[in-house]
Write a structure and sequence with these properties.
There is one protein chain. This protein has 1126 residues and is of the alpha+beta class. 46% of the residues are buried. This is Phospholipid-transporting ATPase.
């Protein structure tokens, strides 16, 4: 299909024509989406491809094929094929179970319902059944199922409000307006009678762009722009209903166009393991070559005296045939059971995450969910955390928490809302500031674009700005109730009295102005201008007669330090003549063609002067529970945190202060540029200022907006920008598109040798979630797109602390120990085959019975690695959370790397040497057993095999840091299982025609005194070196982890661990937040650096909307709305 080819990037989208009320002519992408890896038809080929793309599986398939060649395999035909089939089946079941969860999550999205006009009535159908050209009706609070062109709405002038935080991270609502030509099309009959088409651009990822033309029969064509388009993933708010025509569906919607191609993620541990497997393959080939060369030399030296070994016709074996025989003999050096062991271990680890009640959100009923188990150990190595802001760190809830009026602060830190009884008492008791308090709240009730709706005795406020809604609701709670808006007036009930103010003009808010004003006529007939905005712009416009300036500024600084969003409020009285003169200038500026915005802002500025300060407001952008504590713990764990948000810069900075990512004394590098050259200059200057401290973590915050980032990511600037960002303690990137978020993560991922994690809750976070090594989705209020594309899903940001510091650390220790142990036990047993070739003439003879040989991994030594991988704990959950610094042990990967791997292999090589040569020398002179039996090679092989099983089981015990009943069961149970199997297996033949060479072996060996002597001496000799090394390391070079474990074992109470860390950890390991960062000798001299005290100003408001703020307030009439409602 065309849409599939486009989605795969094979062709450029072309303009499209959509026929209205003619579905048969519209053939486009379906509206279903899928985040699953497999379908019913693609599962088998794709699964087999993925499995055999792993070097180990491909190698074992090759061995299985070779074993089918007659007279080639010394180990039988099916000893590799059957275990390989078991591995593939178990892995396949695990993949099916995990992908089933993805299908169920996709189904929740695809089966949501919406209203579609079908056959003269509104039918409720599933999202996946929506087609391009369908006429959709969405109700208030619903998410939109597809991209559509707005036809009409329930609101005046066919406006509607949409929440786009799911797309761009902004908290304020956006306004969209239908075309006047379609605004009256609201009934079913009117909609069915529409005849025409929409010509528009093809699908693309640009949220703010849309070019189209509406052709209605017998009418002139009408242009369609982004102000008429509603996108999939947005939510309808403050609007009863809207009607639209679908233009893009499914993967062609702009939301899905911004998603990046889902990558097959593999953990760093898995990648290291694959490299070591390839190295072992080379070692295996070397062993085979050595054995072949050894056989040639042995044949030449001994063939003359051993004529019976000559092949028929005197022909010697070919090089290729002999090499393949030795490859088959040694192939178990690569642990065939490792992959299936890891699959089971990781699956169970994922269930532990799913079952963790500490990560269960009781309010929503959601548990943590591991959507994949392949990355469990990656959670223990995260170095860079990329977090969204809106909905991830915050709750999307604004509350009016504190204020200062006439130099007096009100509000309590412990309270969620402003409810200070002293405030109302000062009004009722005739306090000298009574009039200031009244004017303060009158301003809050008028200087906004909120409109009220009465619901019985309750007032509901609809606003595009969450800040404005919070202020109006806060005033209402204190007795100043905004009750009515008409096109030219507002009515306020204040402490039992009703006041009506005539609204004359709205002086609009913009990011450049940082303020909003309203000109009103008071009930007493006085012209008054109320203004709210940033302290910097209000203070420079204050009259010399204004009071409380110093006190208010002090309070503003305190509010900002608490992470509250602040606004200064002031007013000025206007003379009638002054206002009329200004009004003429205002009307003139409103009608100019060129430079209208600049003329209007100059006109606003002319009258916004000589203010009298009333005070300031402080709004709390409510953080999710325990966010500051979680960020503090993650910083102590040496995890660098970058905030990537689509919201405004002021808002992002405020949240960074609020969640304690940025401190008040921290210098802030602000990168806001308009060209590549300017960006390059600013970055270069800051890099020079850092000097030798570049590429080292400094107590500095870097803040950059999306426009500047576009230049910073260009060729020639990108490397310097990355170096500067990596040198900062915190990085804030604002006003980013979803694609820019993914680009930043990709930049760090490719250029820094560290594990990245991205966390978000909206569809705009999907790209970075898929790009990062580990993606975590927040199951929030912004749809399921983020969680459906994530590797792990949690309900709250605070759960990330336990997910990383506990589950991540535990899983890293478990997986790495399991891997090392699996390689260890394989090298121990199967290198013995190499030693045996030196005494069997390099003949390729196996020392062990073929099924014992194959069942070693799958049966006799399978329990210890499972125990290590499932139940191992480096230390308790309590201590991992109490001392986040311990996370750096797994983060730095010091317990699993190439050096550690080969040290373990060399240790196993030494053990295999002892296991073979000690029993061989012990039986060198042969012996006569009871009933006249003599020993043979299999007698020696069963000696060695038993000692090997005992040794590797006891070795697992030495590796365990947390002994449980399962540990005892695995170690002693495995030894007993082998002895019981060995005994039973020796008596099967001839009753069961299998393994005749094993007949009577148990009776001979278990009654031999040499066997029991070696049973004690040989494993002890192997492990004595490991025991001594462990004792010496824990005595003379104890790690911080061992200190904690000692405290746990001795149950010491009240011990201060930080002092132990300070003494024990070297300077290299002390890159963690045990204390405040030490200042470095560098000076930031350029203009991009902000060294001032933090400002709390942040305000969300729609800018450059299709309808101006003044038009908006004049359109609404509460009286008309109430009559419609009744």
């Amino acid at each position: 299909m065309d849409w599939q080819r486009y989605w795969q990037g094979l062709e450029v989208p072309t303009p499209r024509t959509i026929y209205i009320n003619d579905p048969l002519r519209n053939s486009f992408c379906p509206n279903w989406i899928s985040t699953a890896k497999y379908s019913k038809w693609s599962f088998l080929p794709r699964y087999l491809y993925l499995q055999f793309s792993k070097a180990a599986n491909a190698f074992f398939l090759f061995i299985s094929i070779l074993q089918q060649v007659p007279d080639m395999s010394p180990t039988g035909k099916y000893t590799t094929l059957l275990p390989l089939m078991v591995i593939l089946i178990i892995s396949g079941i695990k993949e099916i179970l995990e992908d089933y969860k993805r299908h169920m999550a996709d189904r929740l999205v695809n089966t949501k319902t919406t209203l579609v006009l079908r056959q003269s009535s509104w039918d409720r159908i599933m999202w996946q059944e929506v087609n391009v050209g369908d006429i959709i009706k969405a109700l208030n609070g619903e998410f939109l199922p597809a991209d559509m062109v707005l036809i009409s709405s329930s609101e005046p002038q066919s406006m509607c409000y949409i929440a786009t935080s799911n797309l761009d991270g902004e908290t304020n609502l956006k306004i969209r307006q239908a075309l006047p030509e379609t605004a009256g099309m609201q009934t079913e009959q009117q909609l069915l009678n529409i005849s025409g088409k929409i010509e528009c651009e093809g699908p693309n990822r640009h949220f703010s762009c849309f070019t189209g033309t509406l052709h209605i029969t017998d009418r002139s064509p009408v242009p369609i722009g982004p102000d008429q388009v509603l996108l999939r993933g947005t939510q309808l708010r403050n609007t009863q209903w809207i009607i639209g025509i679908v233009v893009y569906t499914g993967f062609e919607s702009k939301l899905m166009q911004n998603a990046v191609k889902s990558l097959l993620k593999r953990s760093k541990v898995e990648k290291v393991t694959n490299v070591q497997i390839l190295a072992l393959l080379l070692l295996l080939l070397a062993m085979s070559l050595v054995s072949f060369v050894g056989s040639l030399f042995w044949d030449r030296a001994n063939r003359a005296g051993m004529w019976y070994l000559s092949k028929e016709g005197g022909k010697s074996s070919s090089f290729g045939f002999d090499i393949l025989v030795f490859i088959i003999l040694y192939h178990n050096l690569i642990p065939i059971s490792l992959l299936v062991t890891l699959e089971i271990v990781k699956f169970i680890q994922a269930q532990f995450i799913n079952w963790d009640e500490d990560m269960h959100d009781e309010k929503s009923g959601l548990h943590a969910m591991a959507r994949t188990s392949n990355l469990n150990e990656e959670l223990g190595q995260v170095k860079y955390l990329f977090s969204d802001k809106t909905g991830t760190l915050t709750c999307n809830v604004m509350t009016f928490k504190k204020c200062t009026i006439a130099g007096i602060p009100y509000g309590q830190s412990s309270s969620c809302e402003l409810d200070d009884p002293a405030l109302l008492a000062n009004i009722k008791n005739g306090h000298p500031t009574e009039e200031y308090i009244k004017e303060f709240f009158f301003l809050l009730c008028m200087c906004h674009t909120v409109f009220p709706e009465r619901d019985g005795n309750n007032m509901i406020y609809h606003a595009s700005s969450p800040d404005e809604a919070a202020l109006v609701k806060g005033a209402k709670n204190l007795g100043f109730v905004f009750t009515m808006r008409t096109p030219h007036a507002v009515t306020i009930e204040a402490l039992g009295e009703e006041y009506t103010f005539e609204v004359l003009n709205i002086l609009e808010f913009s990011s450049d102005r940082k303020r909003m004003s309203v000109i009103v006529r008071t009930p007493a007939g006085q012209l008054r201008l109320y203004c709210k905005g940033a302290d910097t712009v209000i203070y420079e416009r204050l009259s010399k007669d204004s009071l409380f300036m110093a006190e208010t500024l002090t309070h503003l600084e305190h509010f900002a330090m608490e992470g509250l969003r602040t606004l200064c409020v002031a007013y000025t009285d206007l003379a009638e003549e002054e206002y009329q003169h200004w009004l003429m200038d205002y009307k003139s500026a409103s009608t100019v063609i060129q430079g209208r915005i600049q003329r209007l802002e100059a006109c606003y500025d002319a009258i916004e002067k000589e203010f009298l300060l009333l005070g300031a407001t402080a709004i709390e952008d409510l953080l999710q529970a325990h966010v500051p504590e979680t960020i503090s713990a993650l910083l102590k764990a040496s995890i660098k945190i970058w905030i990537l948000t689509g919201d405004k810069q002021e808002t992002a900075i405020h949240i960074a202060y609020s969640c304690k990512l940025i401190s008040g004394h921290m210098p802030r590098i602000l990168l806001n540029a308009n060209s590549v050259q300017e960006t390059h200059h600013m970055i270069h200057q800051n890099c020079q200022d850092l000097g030798d401290m570049l590429d080292k973590e400094n107590d500095v915050a870097l803040i950059i907006d999306g426009e500047t980032l576009k230049y910073a990511m260009s060729f020639g600037v990108k490397t310097k920008f990355l170096n500067l960002a990596l040198s900062c303690r915190a990085v804030l990137c604002c006003r980013l598109s979803p694609l820019q978020k993914a680009e930043i993560v990709e930049m760090v991922k490719k250029n820094v040798r560290a594990i990245t994690l991205a966390i978000g809750d909206g569809a705009n976070d999907v790209g970075m979630i898929q790009t990062a090594h580990v993606g975590v989705g927040i199951s929030g209020n912004e749809g399921m797109q983020a969680t459906n594309n994530s590797d792990y899903a949690i309900a709250q940001f605070s759960y990330l602390e336990k997910l990383l510091l506990v589950h991540g650390a535990w899983n890293y220790f478990r997986v790495t120990k399991c891997i090392l142990y699996c390689f260890y036990k394989n090298v121990v047993l199967y290198i013995i085959g190499l030693w045996f070739t030196f005494v069997n003439g390099f003949s390729g003879q196996a020392l062990f019975e073929r099924w014992c040989f194959s069942l070693y991994n799958m049966f006799f030594t399978s329990l210890p690695p499972f125990t290590l991988g499932i139940f191992e704990q480096c230390c308790s959950q309590k201590n991992l959370l109490k001392h986040p610094q311990l996370y750096t042990i797994s983060q730095k990967g010091k317990i699993f790397n190439t050096r550690v791997f080969w040290v373990e292999c060399m240790n196993a090589l030494g053990h295999s040497f002892i296991l073979f040569w000690f029993p061989t020398k012990m039986l060198m002179h042969d012996m006569v057993l009871q009933h006249g039996f003599t020993t043979n090679y299999l007698f020696l092989g069963n000696f060695i095999y038993t000692y090997a099983v005992v040794t590797v089981c006891l070795k697992a015990g030495l590796e365990m840091m947390s002994w449980t009943k399962f540990s005892h069961l695995a170690i002693w149970g495995s030894i007993i299982i082998w002895l019981v199997f060995f005994t039973v297996y020796s008596y099967l033949w001839p009753t069961i025609p299998v393994a005749p060479e094993m007949s009577g072996q148990a009776n001979m060996i278990l009654t031999c005194p040499y066997f029991w002597l070696g049973f004690i001496i040989v494993p002890t000799t192997c492990l004595i070196n490991d025991i001594l090394w462990k004792v010496m390391r824990n005595t003379y070079k104890r790690s911080p982890l061992e200190n904690v474990r000692q405290l746990e074992s001795s149950k010491v109470k009240g011990f201060e661990f930080s002092s132990v860390l300070e003494k024990r950890m070297t300077a290299t390991n002390l890159q963690m937040s045990l204390a405040a960062p030490q200042p470095h000798e560098f000076i930031l001299r350029n203009n991009s650096v902000d060294l001032s005290a933090p400002h709390g100003y942040a305000f969300s408001q729609t800018e450059s909307a299709v309808i101006t703020q003044e038009e908006l307030v004049h359109y609404y009439n509460t009286l008309v709305s109430e009559r419609k409602g009744s």
